[in-house]
Write a structure and sequence with these properties.
- The structure holds 2 protein chains of 2 kinds.
- By secondary structure, chain A is mainly beta.
- Chain A contains no helices and 11 strands.
- In chain A, the strands form 2 sheets. In chain A, strands 2, 4, 5, 9, 10 and 11 form a 6-stranded mixed sheet that branches.
- Classes of the chains: A mainly beta, B mainly beta.
- At the A-B interface, β4, β5, β9 and β10 of A face β4, β5, β9 and β10 of B.
Chain lengths: ~110, ~110
């Protein structure tokens, strides 16, 4: 099945800094999603982005399907951005999303 | 509109006991999923239901059974709990395999 790798595994930022999280996947995808798990454990869907670029406030995501990677950009980070960011990918209609192991982000005031 | 709800929030079981985790969604989604999350392992799919009346195994189905009771409800059963099943369990749903929406999770400890 498809392999999903995220980098870096851990990231510490000063409040106000920008960051880029990367997701590499091993096969073509028809479904690529980014999630945020807050420190209380709740998982929130950020983007459904199998290709192209999307923006939502300070967050944006780009998937380059032909090169098998996706990037999540966080600008002007805030302490509320802390948590774990997961990328998940699916490469056929028969196999549901496979999750990466996540990037743990800590934003310090 | 409650989204995805799960019960219970916490549970402690003794080895060999059985229990059922309940999940319901009010978004009229076709697909529903059960995941477990262990430290450092990300989320791993246990079972999923692409539509009412169908269920399929995921990556880690051993020791679990599921029932898609109707379009809204998808339950996960542990017939004989083992300490290796100590984990946080998440239910999720999606419309036709696009954005997935997660419930708040159930923290299960098996002693």
């Amino acid at each position: 099945g498809i392999q999903v790798e995220q980098s870096p595994p851990d990231l510490i930022l000063q409040e106000g800094a920008n960051s880029t999280l990367r997701c590499n996947f091993s096969d073509s995808v028809n479904n690529l999603q980014w999630f945020h798990q807050n420190p209380w454990g709740q998982l929130i869907n950020l983007f459904y982005i199998p290709s192209g670029t999307k923006q939502n406030g300070r967050l944006s995501a780009t998937t380059v399907a032909t090169e098998r990677y996706s990037l999540l950009y966080i600008s002007s980070s805030q302490t509320t951005d802390s948590g774990v960011y997961f990328c998940a990918a699916e490469n056929s209609g028969n196999t549901p999303l496979v999750f990466g192991k996540g990037t743990r982000l800590s934003v310090i005031a | 509109n409650a989204g995805v709800t799960q019960t219970p929030k916490f549970q402690v079981l003794k080895t060999g006991q059985s229990m059922t985790l309940q999940c319901a969604q009010d978004m009229n989604h076709n697909s529903m999923y059960w995941y477990r999350q262990d430290p450092g392992m990300g989320l791993r799919l246990i079972y999923y239901s692409a539509s009412e009346g169908t269920t399929d195994k995921g990556e880690v189905p051993n020791g679990y059974n599921v029932s898609r009771l109707n379009k809204r409800e998808f339950s996960l059963r542990l017939e004989s709990a083992a300490p290796s099943q100590t984990s946080v369990y998440f239910c999720a749903s999606s419309r036709d395999r696009v954005e997935q929406y997660f419930g708040p999770g159930t923290r299960l400890t098996v002693t």
